[in-house]
Amino acid sequence: MTIHLSIVLFLPLAAGLVGAFLPRGMARWAVLAGTIAVLAYAIAMLADFESGGGLQYVTDDEWIAELGIRYQLGIDGLNLFMVVLTAVSWAPCTLVAAFREHDRPKLFFFNLALGETAVLGAFMAQDLALFIVFFDLMLVPFYFMIGGWGTGERVRATTKFVIYTLAGSLLMLAAAIALGVLSTPDGGEISFSLAQLEQRSVSEGTQHWIVLLFALAFFVKAPLFPLHGWVPETYRASPIVTIALLSAVLSKVGVYGFLRIVLPVMPEGSQHWQELFIVMAVFSILYGSVLAFSQDNVRLVVAYSSIAQLGFIVLGIFALDDKGAQGAVFQMLNHGVVVVGLFLVIGVIAARAGGRESLSELGGMAFRAPVLAAMFLILTFATLAMPGSANFVGEILILFGAFEDKFVYGLVASVGVVLAAVYMIRVFQRTMHNRVEPAVQSREIDRLSLAAVAPLVAVVVALGLYPHFVVERTETATTAAIEQARNASHPEVSVIK
Amino acid sequence: VSATGYGWLVLAFPVAGMLIVSLGWRVLPGRLPGWIASAAILGSFLASLGMLNEVDAEAHVDSAWTYAATGDFVADMSILVDPLSVFMCLVVSGVSFLIHVYSVAYMGGDRGYARYFAYLNYFVFSMLLLVLAANLLLLIVGWAFVGAASYLLISYWYRRTTATYAGIKAFVMNVIGDVGLVIAAFLLFNETGALDYAGVFGGAEEAFSQNDGTLVAACLLILVGAFAKSAQLPLHTWLPDAMEGPTPVSALIHAATMVTAGVYLIARTFPLFELAPTAADVSAIIGTATLVFAATVALVVTDLKRVIAYSTISQIGYMVLGVSIAAYGAGLFHLMTHAFFKALLFMGAGSVIGAMAGAQNLDRMGGFRRAMPFTFITFTIGALALAGFPIMSGFFSKDEILAYAIERGSGFVVLAVVGYIAAFLTAFYAFRMVFRVFFGDPVPEARELEGGHVAHGEPMNPMTGEPEDTDVGFPGPEHHVAERSWPMKFAMGILAVLAVIGGVVGVPALTDTLEHFLEPTFEESRYHDVHPSDGAEWAGLAAGGLVSFAAIALAYVMFVRRAGVTLRLRDRFGAVHDFLSHKWYFDELYDALFVHPFTRAGSFGRRVIETDFVQGFIVGGATGIVRVGTSFARAIQTGYLRAYALLLLLGVAALALYFLLASS
Q1: Do A403 and B641 lie within an 8 Å CB cutoff?
Q2: Does an H or E element contain A69, and which?
Q3: Residues ≥6 apart with Cβ < 8 Å to B591
Q4: How far apart are CA A211 and CA A272, in angstroms?
Q5: Residues of A numbered 352-381 whose beta carbons fall under 8 angstroms of chain B's beta carbons: which are they?
Q6: Which of A145, B37, B278, B541 has the smallest number of CB atoms closer than 10 Å to its CB?
Q7: What is the complex's ipTM, to 2 decimals?
């Protein structure tokens, strides 16, 4: 079976364009069909993928020859599950959105589709310039979705969102150009192909500041403390579907960038900032957890919990240890799947409470909605990384990786595991348990939301039962991604090799 | 079927039961979910008997699939069948089955009937997974699952705020224990390169010297896990609050099975503790401190279920002492007998609470002897066993632990003496319950029951006295007493028999069956030959019998003969009473040390860091830059975002141009 990544990549966009020419009410179905086709394609790819087989399904064409930019796509263990995550997240979100009324539906669904193409592109790109094109392209549809269909202070929210991410993107763009230019050997051709860049090298001093610029862009996206200033307002103002995708998928593009670009291309530079990034990660874990506990708005609990979770992922990456990186890659998938489910459930909860999302006004939802409560319970347990969930396997690998070299940081991070239990179980209790608050209608989850959430819950359970399915497919690529940076931090090891 | 084949069956039954009950909750009629769940656990018990039949001195490991493996980190979905795990499976599934049957009737009128049994089956599965797991990772999974099941069942009547907060408290304490185990697992993995028991224990012998610092740390972290689950000092505060759950849950999870997991864990990892005697000594000391601490609190608490809860904490202290001084057989023996008599006591308490229409306060009870003869007899049997009255099961098991402590000599003798003092307190508070509930003048509820019907009161929260609507929790429109419900009688009857004769497997010099059965597991123990002489054991038994007799007699005088003397004592020693009835102020201490700082940090973060630093400084800085840009942009008559984007593009283009020129 041959898999053409270009088809996967542009399917959603094509569906969006088709939708634009269909009658008003039909655009949504075209886009939904597109996301489902992508999902089918992703599943086929998962079945076909060869563990440990290196970069697969490669597409490699010239694009802008003068600047050395190529249209280069490929799948390996690093991005296989990121593509799957994108497909798995987009399909239920589009489904839920399709049954909801929107102003200017054509435009909304076009943006949704464009967003999927951009994210897929960022994950599949094997050329730095191509990555940046898609990375920045992601911003556009999300900007329009938040600004156009958001609620409350959406203008303020979009402004902040745009300023933060654009600033990050700009710095990264500058860094990427510098990297391409400075790594070009005398008389050689400039190239942005990642495989090429890995072969070439720039001086260590240059690496330092280039890594820092990349990191700023990625940490804003993640987000990590203290670059999360855009988070509270954006989370509060976005449409629920948009924020689900933003939190589940877009946040992963940044941390993915570390593994795909920063660590392999600039190992010494990455090693140089290891300590700083770990400190930021650990602080984000604690800070995000404490803040998540003190929030009243359900969305903001998830928002700050994402800061903590992304902190774990960054910790796993910069532990520069095989287990830690494996855990990080796994956790990127787990957190994504769980967060989409969480936000869809929050959407249901808010609908039952007349749009209220504040914990103090919620409660007792489980009373006549046992199925809703059961779904939410499983997602809650997975989010707090209860042993038995795949999130736990991801987290324990991260912690083991951190303990190995950075024992104290690992210890501090484990406090975050306890705090996660505190803030997540609190959300569950305050929404599902206690007395039914006057504003709340305890009604069972509707069929549509069930159709969207139940498959996600099934994925969560399946991953918990058989985490090795993911771990064995990601192992080779992940180990390779951090190998050089790890050896840079252990010079004696590289001598032996 | 091989031993491990039975082992997988042991796990499969409760999973099947849970799935059937939870997926069929809408269609299964009446009490059918309860019977299905009970049948599932009976299946587990029978499969455990199959294991018993197949098990030999070998440890059988069987792996179903690779759970997670990367590099040297390898964990399979694998189970270990050896005498210890078979013993635990028998106790867990056996007692669980009886409590399921009891619940079929007891929970009869509850609107969450199917949910209750789904949770209960899930709990049993988790507990069996915990004892059958063959590696640390799977152990942690079972460990956390029982914590989750405990949370769900404590919060079972989730419309009671007291219940949901108690659930959270239990859950968080248990997660602290989980984290302790995770770190311990890392320390062991790091030195031994293994996660499975055989690899860890074998590797530890080579990797660690006696009392190696890392190993001691790992063992202490294992103890964090064990003590959180087994409610030992200082992680015990969740267990009394866990009494918010339905009474059969208290019997099953918070007395007979889950809370003894810590004892199992210490016994399971005995090669590590023997290599780190310092950690074992810490454990023995904490166990002893806990057993006397909890016994003193049980003297003054007035909530019937909480008296039994503190008694559980205290009794687990004995078990922890036992397994920490290498008296593995004795500690596990007490685990078993305690499971019988403590489950029985809770069932009796449930029956009384049923008769009281949900009220749990001892001060309101009295004179139920004639109204509830069956409950009275079985409860008294449970209390006698708890008190270590001669020939009852608890008599043999508790004294064996103390005999081992004396045999170890030196400081351990002190622990044994404390153990005997606490045994006096135990017998005293056990009969404080019996005399106050069943003796004296019958309260109105008792009279009503004598007159032929069960009392109905206004539904209210037994802790706070708040009125509730009938759907909130127990008692629903119907509630049950053992005298009128054969499933309850059946379960209590069997447990009463076991509470009496359970000691037969461990009569010194005569039977010692249990110890011989468990021997293959503990064969490698370096204390294998340390064993108190038969004479010493019988002398200990005589002493224990006397202590128990004296304490019961004192309780009789104080609560029956000269009732009222306790009130005078309370007034006379008000300070002591306050100290004890506030449970030594542990909750207050933790609030001040952890809860308040945590919430304060949260509001500090929200009000100060978020607004002043992140929003003010960083966002402010960014918008400041933008503002400069906009004033410039305004000058060229464009909206600021557009101008900003334009500026960005120009900047990028300039940079690109610069680098291109620089490179050529």
Answers
A1: no
A2: strand A69-75
A3: none
A4: 9
A5: 364, 366-367, 370, 374, 377, 381
A6: B278
A7: 0.89
Q: How far is CA B630 from CA A139, A168, B618, in A?
A: 21, 19, 18
- Report H helices in B468-595: 486-501, 513-518, 534-556, 565-572, 574-581, 586-590
DSSP letter at B489? H
DSSP conformation class of A188: P
HEC-encoded secondary structure of B250-296: HHHHHHHCHHHHHHHHHHHCHHHHHHCHHHHHHHHHHHHHHHHHHHH
For residue B664, what pLDDT is reported?
A: 43
Judge: B619–A167 Cβ closer than 8 Å, yes or no.
no
**Separation CA B664–CA B123 (nearest Å):** 71
pLDDT in tens, chain A (497 residues): 466 888 888 899 899 888 888 887 788 898 899 999 999 999 998 888 888 778 888 888 888 777 778 888 888 889 999 999 999 999 999 999 888 877 788 888 888 999 999 999 999 999 988 898 888 888 888 888 888 888 888 887 888 888 788 888 888 888 888 888 888 877 778 888 888 888 887 888 888 888 888 898 898 888 888 778 788 888 888 888 999 999 999 999 989 999 999 888 888 888 888 888 998 899 899 888 888 888 888 888 999 999 999 999 999 999 888 889 999 999 999 999 999 999 999 988 888 888 788 888 887 787 888 888 899 999 999 998 888 888 999 999 999 888 888 888 888 888 888 888 888 998 998 888 887 777 777 778 888 888 889 999 999 999 999 999 999 888 888 888 888 888 876 554 444 33
Which of B145, B157, B158 to mutate against chain A (most A CBs within 10 Å)?
B158
Angle at B146 between CA B24 and CA B110, to 5 degrees: 45
Measured between alpha carbons, how far is B609 from B621 in angstroms, rounded to an integer? 15
B143 in contact with chain A, both atoms CB, cutoff 8 A: yes
A294 interfacial to chain B (CB closer than 8 Å) = yes
Cα distances (Å, whole numbers) of residue B594 to B175, B589, B599, B600:
15, 8, 9, 10
Distance from CA of B111 to the nearest CA of A (A): 10
Q: Give yes or no for B190 touching A (CB within 8 A).
A: yes
- State how far the Cα of A300 lies from the Cα of B301, in Å rounded to an integer: 42
| Mutation for B interface: A283, A468, A471, A478, most B CBs within 10 A | A468
Partner residue facing B68 (CB), from A167, A417, A468: A468
- B657 to chain A, minimum CA–CA distance in Å? 10
To the nearest whole Å, the CA of B47 is away from the closest chain A CA by 23
- Rounded distance between C-alpha atoms, residue A124 and residue A83, angstroms: 8
Q: With an 8 Å Cβ cutoff, are A181 and B660 in contact?
A: yes
Which tokens is B171 given?
A: 């859950």
Contact A25, A93 (CB under 8 A): no
Q: How far is B656 from chain A (nearest CA, A)?
A: 7
Chain A residues in contact with B118 by the CB 8 A cut-off are: none
Chain B residue whose CA is closest to A325: B70
Q: Encoding tokens for residue B524? A: 């490698």
Cβ burial, residue B571 (10 Å; 0-12/13-18/19+): exposed
> Quick check: A14 contacting B, CB < 8 Å?
no
Interface check B421 vs A, CB under 8 A:
no
Q: Which of A313, A341, A347, A346 is nearest to A327 (CA)?
A: A313
Count of Cβ atoms closer than 10 Å to residue A61 Cβ: 9
Q: What are the percentages of helix, strand and coil residues in chain B, rounded to 5?
A: 75, 5, 20
A window 385-414, beta carbon within 8 A of B: 386-388, 392-393, 396-397, 399-400, 403-404, 410-411, 414
Judged by CB atoms closer than 8 Å, whether chains meet at A467 and B68 is answered as yes
